[in-house]
Amino acid sequence: MLTSLANMNQEYFMQLALEAAKKGDAPYGAVIVKDNQVVSLAYNTVRQDSDPSAHAEINVIRSLTAKLKNPSLEGYSIYTTGEPCPMCATACVWAGISEIIYGASIEDLISLNQGQINISCEEIIAKSFRKIKVTKGILRTECLELFKSP
C-alpha cells in the first residue's frame, strides 16, 4: 500500500512538472516538494530571459532559496520532466537537494535530437560530496511526448 501511495504521489508531482513545462520556452518543468507538499515550481526561460542558465531546475532552486532566504534545500525533492543536465545536477548538489526524480533521461532526449551534454546526473552526484537519491522514468512516456509536440 505504501509503495503504491508513494508512486501515486510521484506521478502527481511529475504531472505538475509536465504542466509547468508547457509554459516554458523549452519543454522542461521542475517542481520542488517537501513533506508531500509542493513548495515551488518553475519552467525553462532561457530565451525569454536571454539567460543560458535559466533551466527549469535552476529557476525553481533560485526561486525557493530566495523565498526561504536560505541556500540549503536539504530534505527537499525535485521533480523534473527531463534528467537534470550537468549544470542543473551540480546546482542540486550545491543546494543539498535530497532526491531527484525525473521522467525522460538524457539518453532519451539525445535520441529525440535534443541538445544535451551526455553526462548523467548520477555521474555528477557520484563525483560530488553528497548522496542524492535518484528516481528515474516517472511518467517517462508523457515527458517524452513534450519533446515530440510541434
Core attributes:
150 residues, alpha/beta, five-stranded mixed beta sheet, 7 helices, 5 strands, 45% helix, globular
Describe this structure as you would to a colleague.
- About 45% of the residues lie in helices and about 20% in strands.
- Strand 3, helix 4 and strand 4 form a beta-alpha-beta unit.
- It has a five-stranded mixed β-sheet, with helices on both faces.
- The longest helix is centred in the first third of the chain and has 20 residues, at about 1-20.
- The protein starts with a helix and ends with a helix.
- The chain has about 150 residues and is an alpha/beta fold.
What are the SSEs and their pairings?
Blueprint: H1 2-21, E1 29-34, E2 37-43, H2 46-49, H3 56-68, E3 77-82, H4 86-95, E4 99-104, H5 106-111, H6 121-126, E5 133-136, H7 140-148
Parallel strand pairs: 3-4, 4-5
Antiparallel strand pairs: 1-2, 1-3
What is this entry, summarized?
The protein has seven helices and five strands; from the N terminus they run H-E-E-H-H-E-H-E-H-H-E-H. With 150 residues, the protein is of the alpha/beta class. Helix 4 (86-95) links the parallel strand 3 and strand 4.
Terminal CA distance reads 39 Å
In terms of quaternary structure, what is this? single chain
The helix fraction, in percent, is: 40-55%
Share in β-strands: 15-25%
Which value, in Å, is the CA radius of gyration? 14 Å
Category by helix and strand content: alpha/beta
**Average pLDDT:** 94
Number of helices: 7
Strand order of the largest sheet: 2-1-3-4-5
Approximate shape: globular
